[in-house]
What does this fold into?
Amino acid sequence: MVLAVSATILLGFTGLAIEAGGWYLALRNAATAADMAALAGAAARERGEDYSAVASDTAALNGFAAGVAVGPPTEGQFVGDAGAVQVVISRNQQISLARLFLATAPTVRTRAVATVHADSEVCVLSLGGGLELGGNSTTKSGHCLLGSNAAAPNGISVVGSAGVRADGLVTTGACSGCTSGDVWTDDNRNVPPLIVSGRPEPIRDPFSGLKNWTPQPPSCRSPALALGSTPVTISPGQAICSSLTVEPNQTLNLNPGIYYFRNADLVVQGTLTGEGVTLIFTGDSDRVGTIRINAGATGRLTGPASSLVPDRPEGAGLLLYRDGLATNNGPNKEVQLNGGATLHMSGGLYFPTSDVVMNGRSNIESVCLSIVGYRLSFSGAADTRLGVSGCENYTPYPTIRTVRLVE
It folds into this structure.
């Protein structure tokens, strides 16, 4: 009788040990699946995809098609993080001999949270046409990167006698001349910058939500705006519907607000000022105007601390925007920031389908200026100083972001 009882107890403990080992293995497998699903979900959320479907599919590929809950974090320190994804996996386990000691079968439950982390800030970003640094231009970006999402063989090209001073050059395509040209982190030429080519993921476009936005400009100004030798100050509320030139002896002051240029160009050769303003170039898709800042232009423009674009929070800091739905994107409508301009700008410049050219002897200098366009070209003797260290109330610049497992 003692032997029978002892054997039963021994058999029960043996069964419990075997089953507990199986449960532990199931927990490890579930934890691995949850980690992978959370990472995949956070990456999908960053790209604007259906993160829940991606995370669920990833969990299924790792053996957990059921018992998977995906959503924003409901506990922990990342509750409210807009980029975080939580994955919870739970599964009831089988039980046999362990019934001698347990009334019910245990449930394996594991939780993982992943989110995106901003690693580096980007001052200049080409969305598809490439970034060219040429001529005798000098481009200096204080503690931020120059980036391009153009596919190979495009990407970033440093040609001629161009000088580049940046923390890094990062592109999804090729980086031509990046290691052989005058490319350094500072003027002492002691430390080369970070060079990344063939990046698998594009750099995030912070203004991407504006691409499919259809601006609704108000009625046209009547009579049309006329400038003379006396400075003119205007307020928002009416669209500018005929091309406007600020001549060398003229001054245009903009009160805070959003200004629409409907089928109209803005050429600046004189003085243009405005604090807390957003300039929108829109209209018929084949007639959208552009902006040209030429020799002699002076003044100061700053973007708004909060978005002036209805229902578009990414418009915070947006200073200049040319409609992403424009189809007239040829050389005649490229954005030009050139000549001898000393017009200082602060904020985000967004031209998703337009070419942007900086040449001549432009002197664009700002501690809070980000330029995002389809194709960017710095040439001539352009001296361009960019940075985002002075952006206090908003972040109108793209960032290189990585997905990390945080819980």
Q: What stands out?
A: The first helix runs from residue 2 to 47. DSSP finds two helices and 26 strands in the chain.
